[in-house]
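Listing S7. Sequence submitted for prediction.
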Amino acid sequence: MQIPPEEKIEEKLPEGKITDEGVAKLREMIGIKLRLEYGGFQRDATIDTITNFSNGVGDFNPLFRDPGYGRWTRFSSMIAHPIFPISVDWPGRTRWGLPGVHGFGVANDWEFYRVVRPGDRLNAYVRVLGAEEKQSSFSKRLVIQYTEHLFTNQRDEPVARTIGICTRHERQTAREVGKYSQEKEATYSDAEIDQILKLEAEEPNHIRGAETRYWEDVREGEQLPSIVRGPLSLQDITGFLVGCGHRSHAHGVLYSQASRHPQHYFRNRQAGGGIEYTGIGHMRSEVAKNVGVPAGYDYLPQRIAWLTTMVTNWMGDDGFLKRLRMEARKFNLLGDTTWCEGKVTRKYIKDDYALVDIDIWCKNQRGEVTAPGVATVMLPSRDPSLKMVVDGRSLELGLPIPESIKASWPKRSG
């Protein structure tokens, strides 16, 4: 393997620009299939990978970590956490067009079709849906990119479909605007830390588990038991990366990868000039500041996983999470604490299924909602005329795509 010249890897973060030409090239890619970013690092669902994922997102549910427990559920097996498919690829990741322009994952909209069991092998079909420009108070000009992920198993059966959304920002402009430059570092009293730890320790008590939650017993307006995650540490972030099988290169392999994609890597002086990925700002606060963020911060699918855990804790083993959407509105910085909360907003019957809609959100220690969302759960009913809860049933809830994106799609011919 021949490695390109070393000088291509700069000693600072690449400073790409958003240009009309670059945006036009993005739109030329609409409908194109993208190869998987992580090369299928963790495609196999096994007892180990499923349990490791639960560890990485902090989920205590025995359905996702105990084969003996799962054997006596309706699945006759342990199953994976609903967003385990991110072990194959992350919807909403930045990896097409605009080299050197920083990207943040900002939203996912999931529709689930089947559970994942040990022995399943997952794949993903990823295609470009579109790109649009907007003005931003964070970095002035920005580009929003949309992708669609269809996750399938080894039988080519759909497991989940996701719309992933990311935003692209010029690093220099974000630094100069300094929207978050006055953000204060999180501090806590000993009593506050003790209360957070107490809530974390009590979380297993709120897992519904084998006690069936019937649709008839749900009340509109009822609150879901909240869960807490934090204060966010470097250990939390690295644990998440290990749990979801995040690809990582090292030494000569890293060098060869960086040399092929120099706009995504740099030589970091904090590491003695060693090569690091531009996304290392999630873990290195000094790098985060270079992209306009005051400290290291979490990953989009982390918060999605936490909200999913809150919902699955509430619904119990006999429910089925049908849809979950979340939008990251604020950064979750190192040291921040996140409370995941939810409220039932509607219960109804559709296509002879008993359904519940839930407003969900993440709130930090400042009382700010950092990530609002919605979820839909299918629950068992005492009414025998309604259908049983099973996977593989699409409710065709629809994943909303902006009309401006649809208008840019190629016109059908014939």
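Caption to Listing S7: primary sequence and predicted structure tokens for the chain studied. The chain has a mean pLDDT of 90. The CA atoms of residues 98 and 181 lie 25 Å apart.
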